[in-house]
Design goal:
The chain is built from 5 helices and 7 strands, in the order βββαββαβααβα. The protein is α/β, with parallel strands linked by helices. It has a single domain, classed as eRF1 domain 2 (Nucleotidyltransferase, domain 5). It is globular and about 40 Å long.
């Protein structure tokens, strides 16, 4: 069982925004205050794509194949995870937090985990694989508490 001590950071993220929260009480009755919000403008892929995928002819015969188009929306999500990892490293290096809980959509959590510097990884006391960025803070408190108590 992981408890969220006073001062623990909770970062709630999806592929486009992140909430940086700090617990100002204890693990029994967590009370999170918002420290910072990060948001990225990430329109749907269709809005970011310039045109139709290119086509290529086969070396023999008359078949034609389409190239896969770049998924700009997904690339932006991966870039956001990298940016978030950089922010967390900077804050950890400055001693802004001693422990942190990561709450993110499963694919974002995986990408974030692969991008985190060891200095941040050493401070991770819990991970929750859920999308909670649009939940009110009091619901996030309850969900984090119940998930870490399990």
């Amino acid at each position: 069982m992981t408890t969220i001590k006073n001062g623990t950071w909770v970062v709630v993220a999806d592929g486009e925004k992140a909430l940086f929260l700090r617990n100002v009480t204890d693990g029994e009755n967590p009370n999170f205050e918002v420290i910072r919000k990060e948001e990225q403008d990430n329109p749907k892929d269709i809005d970011q794509s310039a045109n139709r995928p290119g086509r290529v002819g086969q070396s023999h015969g008359s078949a034609v194949s389409a190239y896969d188009d770049t998924d700009w929306h997904e690339l932006a999500k991966e870039r956001f995870a990298a940016d978030l990892a950089d922010i967390l490293y900077e804050r950890a290096h400055k001693g802004k937090f001693d422990s942190i809980v990561l709450v993110a959509a499963p694919n974002v959590l995986g990408e974030l985990r692969s991008q985190l510097h060891q200095e941040v990884t050493d401070k991770v006391v819990g991970e929750i694989s859920k999308t909670l960025t649009n939940h009110p803070i009091d619901e996030i408190e309850k969900i984090v508490k119940s998930n870490l108590a399990a």
